[in-house]
Amino acid sequence: MIKQDNAVFNGYDFSTPVVILKNEEDSHVGLGIIRSLGRLGVPVYSMISHPRASASFSRYSDTFYFPRLSPAIPQEELTDYLFEVARRLGRRSILIPTFDFYARFIARHSATLKEMFIFPDCNSSLVESLCSKQGLHELAVRHGIPTARSAFPKSRAELDEFIQNAVFPVIIKPLDWTKLDSMSVKKAIVVHSLKELIEETNPGASFNFTNCIFQECIQGDRTQDWMFNGYFDSHSNCLVSFTGKKLRQAPVYTGYTSLGECVSNEIVNETSITFLKKLGYRGIVDIDYRYDPEDGNYKILDVNPRVGSTFRLFVGFNGLDVIRAMYLDVTGQKIPHDGQVEGRKWIVEDRDLRSVYLYYRNGDITLRDFLKSLKGIREGAWFALDDPLPFFTRIRDQVVSRLWPFNRR
Fold it and tell me: Residue 144, by phi and psi: left (phi above 0), alpha (psi -120 to 50) or beta?
């Protein structure tokens, strides 16, 4: 057994295996799960589709390699893969999804998967709604949760009506990331004028507006993007919660957190807990908010019904995070008391460097600001002294990806 990294967890049973569905080669989420649980001695297994996935090089994990594993395969084939994993392990294990598609899959097929795996059983229709920008917007409005003004045009007439009444700037995002096609917008786009909006959505453009959300782009300080991380048990009681800020993002302004900081926010915390309790939510959740200085509200933007990419930002004084809380709860063990570490920072090393360059080029950060922002960083997404190999393989892959076009020429 690997030596536990905090005395508060001495005496707990960490023998139940964990299976991660799935671990992408360029994603740090699965690596965070591996290290969080592996350091406690939990047997962790990653389902991967690429032999160079970071999970393949971690000292804390073993892997199951399925080359065809992706959201594009038939769901029957994915079920077969899970059956194969269960057969190899020879016992029930805890199943953790890392992307919306897999969270939805588990919720839909929970009756079958329960025979082989352990996981928080959340209502399938609720998971579907939370994964959908439109579904989330409707739930927020219904329960009185502040949210950005949004439109979901399903016809050219509805789109034209929105264009005529749009208040700028407007952000355009995919409505459902799992249903992108060749004509879909692949990332968030911010338009600042009627002319830009017409150009992006004109009938001749290769643009599937029916899979888009058109949303007001809330103005204000770029550090007013807030996060909530929590775990809700089978009775929808919140057993652990954290809040924090996005200090930098990748891509800049509209992307994932590349540098985050733990900061207490009672409004964000209570709003999240009350909302999800009313919905009857169960399991790990990751929520994004943005503060609107015009009306003083924290407006909900996204709810991820699964572990979020920033979960290792939120680690308590005693080492508790949402993954560890979930593990202990579903194995029938008491979750130790813990508290949020104010000012704790976490960084995605490679993505943050690229973002810093773009923020600097846009005049939003100085060298002094950058150096000051590094104070308080407790953990990196890729680098760890006790598990260094994934970091160096990440560097190798980054270098190869940049040299490959030149090699081809």
Answer: left
DSSP letters spanning 191-222: E-SHHHHHHHH-TTSS--GGGEEEEE---S-T
Q: CB–CB of 229/286 below 8 Å?
A: yes
pLDDT of residue 184: 52
Instruction: Give the CA angle between residues 123, 126, 131 to the nearest 5°.
Output: 125
Q: Which of 305, 315, 311, 325 is nearest to 240 (CA)?
A: 325
pLDDT beyond 90 at 241: yes
CB of 49 within 8 A of CB of 376?
A: no
pLDDT for the residue 150: 87
Mean pLDDT of 81-106: 97
Separation between Cα atoms, residue 161 and residue 189, nearest integer Å: 20
CA 27 to the chain's CA centroid:
10
Q: Which residues pair with 260 in a beta bridge?
A: 246, 346
Asked if residues 18 and 45 have their Cβ atoms less than 8 Å apart, the reply is yes
Tell me: the pLDDT tens digits for 200-233?
777 655 567 778 888 888 877 767 999 999 999 9
Q: Checking phi first, is residue 371 left (phi over 0); if not, alpha (psi -120 to 50) or beta?
A: alpha
CA 380 to chain centre: 16
| Integer Cα distance of 159 and 174 in angstroms | 15
Q: How many CB atoms lie within 10 A of CB 111?
A: 9
In the chain, the amino acid numbered 296 is G
> Do 118 and 330 touch, CB atoms closer than 8 A?
yes
| Mean pLDDT of all residues in 266-270 | 98
